[in-house]
Every structure is written in C-alpha cells, then in structure tokens.
Amino acid sequence: MVDEERTNSGTLKALGYGNADVMLKFTVYGFAASTLGTCIGVLAGHTLLPLIVAHAYSAGFTMPDIMLKFHPWITMAAFALAWISAVVPAWLAASKELREKPASLLLPKPPAKGSKILLEHFPPLWNRLNFTHKVTARNIFRYKTRMFMTIFGVCGAVSLLTAGLAVQSSIGQIGNRQFEELIHYDLIVAEESDTNSAQREEIATTLKGKTVQSSTAVRYEELSKTAGKENDKQSITLLATDDAYNFNEYLTLRDRKTHQPQILVNNGAVISERLAEMLNVSVGDTFTVNDENGAQRTIKVAGISEMYIGHFIFMNAQCYEHVFGDQYSTNAYMVRLKDHSNANTERQGAKFMKLAAVRGVVQNTTQKNMVSTIVGSLNQIMEVLILVAVLLAVVILYDLTNLNVSERIRELSTIKVLGFHTSETTMYIYRETILLSLLGILAGYGFGEWLHRYIITEVPPDEVMFDPAISWIALAAPAIVVAVVLAVLGWIVYRQLETVDMLEALKSVE
C-alpha cells in the first residue's frame, strides 16, 4: 500500500504536509482494518466457537448449560496483537519511504540492486536452467519478503489441513479396528465366586443357546494402576487363558505397525499399546499393578499389542500362576454372539445378568458408544479447523498474488509489449507463486505431522489411543486444495493481464 501510494505521498510532502501527517493515512487504515477484524474475531471467539465445542461434547456427555463469559485479558491481548501486526508495519514502511525527498517520491521506485543468487554459485546446476527458469529464480530471491510470506502462509494452511484431516482419519478408524479386527467377542460373563454345580450348569446351558455362536472359559480380573497425565487410577482388564489356540478366535494380538502376532509366553504378558505408553515400558521391562485385593503384582512385558480402547493385560495360565502365586482357575467366559448388533448384545447381556451365578457382564456396546461419542465430538471440532485452514489458504494466496501483480504491473506490461503472449506473461509471474507454494506444502507436511502427533497425544482420554498413522488423504487433500486455489487465482491473473492497458501502465509518472 505504501509503494502504491508513493506518488501521492510525494505530492503531499511537496505541498508542505509533514511526515507524521502523511503516515497517518497508512496507520489509520491499519488501525481501522485490524480493529474491525479483531472485533469480529472476539465476538466469534466469545460466542460461536464455544457454542460449537459445547455442542460437540454435549452430544455424548452430561454437561451443564454453557455459560458464555467475557474474558477481558484475552480480548486486550487480541487487540494488542492485531495492532502490532497491522499498525506497526504500516508505520515502519511509511517512515522508511518518507525519508526520501519529495522529488524522489514522485519518481517510480528504482528496482532492487542486482546481485548473484545462491544458485549461481553452482554453475553445473545454473547453466542447465533455461532463460525463463533463471528469471524465475532471480525474481524469487529479489522479492525475499514475499517469498517468505508465501512459504509460511501456505505452510500454515497446509499444516492445519494436514493435522485436521489426519486427526479425523486417526479417530474415525479406531472403532472398526477395535471391534472388527482385534476384539471378536461380544460379552464377558463373569461368574460368582461361590457357585454350585446347578448354577454352573445353568450358565453352560445358556452358553449353548441358539443366540450364542461360541464361548471360551478365561480368567478375568480388574486390576488398577496410578498413571497418566493427572496420576489418575487406571482400570486394567486382565484376561488369562490356558488355551492360547482357542483364545485367538476371540482376540487378535498383533503389533500395530508390522501386524506380527503377539504370542502368549510363560515368562511375561502382552499388554495394550496405550498402557505401555502411559507406563513408559517396552518389551523386557517390568511394572507393578494392584490386584482386586490391593496387593502389588510385578509383571514382565513380553509383547505390546495394538489396542485402541481400554487397558488390557493378556497372559497364559503359567504366567498367571507365576505373577499371582495362585493356581490358575477360570471365572468368566468370553462369548461370541451370532447377531453382533448393539441391541442384541444388550439383550443377551441382560439375559445373562438374570442368572444367579453371574456376577457381572462386560459388554462391548459401552466401549462402542464411548468411541462413537469421542469421534463425533472431535469430528465437529476438526471440521471447524479444516474450514479455517481452507479460508486461510484462499486469503493468503489471493492477497499475495494480487500484491505481486499490482506491484509489478509495469514489468508485466513491458513483457507483453515485447511480444509475450498472455499465457506466457501469466506463467512468468505465476511460476514463482507455484514454486513457493510447493515449498510451503512440503514445510506444511512437517508441521502438520507434528501438530497431528500433539493432538492425538494430548486430546484423547487415558483409556483411548488414536491411530498415530497419517492417511494418504491427509497428505493428498491439502496439496489438492492449494492446487485448486492456485488454478483459480491463475485464471484470475490471466484475465487481469489480458485486459491490462499496457500503455497506461508504462506511462511515466513524471
């Protein structure tokens, strides 16, 4: 803006206006624009965004009605940052420009002094470039401020898009993987400790019913361990078996990255990945847990299994006897139903609970509902993040492209006068934007991966693990969005250059 108003600034100085009066034009504009934008942002931040987040979480949690409050310190900080970002640069740019004499300001701004760029110090590479590519490289380094603005702007938009889409992918798949690929049972039916033969026969008869596909006897216990960010008491499910072969029909124990099966051995247990992360243990390490009576038990890690919901410890009968010092005996059944629907699972769970010998029933429907709630809540928040990222990409690329064309209109008009076609003239200036956007995309992938890792580590509850892998959609979509924005803006630039008045642009300002 200061460059575009250079001639007017020189005229005002020649008429006797002081530097402070001329600078007031730019600082007032920056102040007004930043104040208006901040007012809109503060209003949305105090009302719209809290309502979106509250609506996302209230869908699955019992929460009190949201109370919107005004935060004066945050508001003051927002206004201060906005004014620093808009008013201070305007003042600095204008003060630098107005140091010149009025006669100099009335003339076009001289081009930047030429110098060798970095690529020229590598003759084998530089000499292989054609004339157009050499001009592009020179122009990129000639306008260093715009270069960094483009790279960092695209990087910010791509990192937000990558993180948002990657988080959506990470949370969207855990339900299917947990209950279709890893856990194959529908119920765990726990027996009372003092059952007689008639009661056990009643359970056996129910397990052989038409609605049950299969069942297997296991040792089921609820252990505990103080861990996590807040040192909360974590509930851990222990499942032990003396039939490892049949056990695999109800649970798939595997490494998340390699899908290598995790085998139950005599001298250690297989634990869920989220539990291993919280306890900061790996294969070969030992850790302690508290059993149902409060006694501490030491367990060696023999394997770490992929598991997204809940904390689990799996072991065979020999390992159980070694850890707990008791003879192994079964006290529960893992049950697979013919109909895996939530309604049928709840119905069959209620049926088992009516039996006198049943102490309790663990249903997968509870975990499924919890996953559905978490996924739905975070998806709404990620959608807002993705929308903001797309708008950021559009605004940044549009502003920088428009600025690039307006500042170099004389240069572009000269090229057209020399016989360049409109498409060639467009690519002459737009090739720089494309190249810088590619660099911004690559940098954005790195920052997006870091942001994704931070979100999936800090956001989920202690008993939930999001998939750390980044899907190909999270990598492809940001590049496609930037490419579409660049294509649309390229067409706008083409139309703008097609209708530009070359003679008017080349007229001397004298």
Describe it for me?
- This protein is α+β, with helices and mostly antiparallel strands.
- The chain contains 19 helices and nine strands.
- α2 packs antiparallel against α4, α3 runs antiparallel to α15 and α7 crosses α17.
- The longest helix has 44 residues.
- It is elongated.
For the structure shown, list the relevant keywords.
about 15% strand, transmembrane, alpha+beta, MacB_PCD, Membrane_comp_ABC_pdt, 9 strands, transmembrane helix, ABC transporter permease, about 500 residues, 9-stranded mixed β-sheet
**What's the β-strand tally?**
9
Distance separating the two termini = 20 Å
- Main structural class: alpha+beta
Share of residues in helices: 55-70%
The overall pLDDT average reads 86
Widest sheet: strand order? 5-6-4-7-3-2-8-1-9
| Low-confidence runs of at least 5 consecutive residues | none
Oligomer: single chain
Number of helices: 19
Radius of gyration, taken over Cα atoms and rounded to an integer in Å = 33 Å
Quick one: overall form? elongated
Order of helices and strands: HHHHHHHHHEHEEHEHEEEHEHEHHHHH
Roughly what fraction of the amino acids lie in strands?
Answer: 5-15%
Largest sheet: 9 strands, mixed
Pfam family, one: FtsX
Protein name: ABC transporter permease
Membrane topology: Multi-pass membrane protein
Organism: Bifidobacterium adolescentis
Please provide a brief summary of the model:
The protein is α+β, with helices and mostly antiparallel strands and 510 residues long. It has helices at residues 6-14, 19-46, 48-58, 72-97, 102-105, 123-126, 131-142, 144-172, 174-182, 197-207, 244-247, 273-279, 317-324, 342-353, 364-407, 409-417, 422-458, 472-498, 502-506; strands spanning 187-191, 212-227, 232-241, 269-272, 286-290, 296-305, 311-316, 332-337, 358-363.
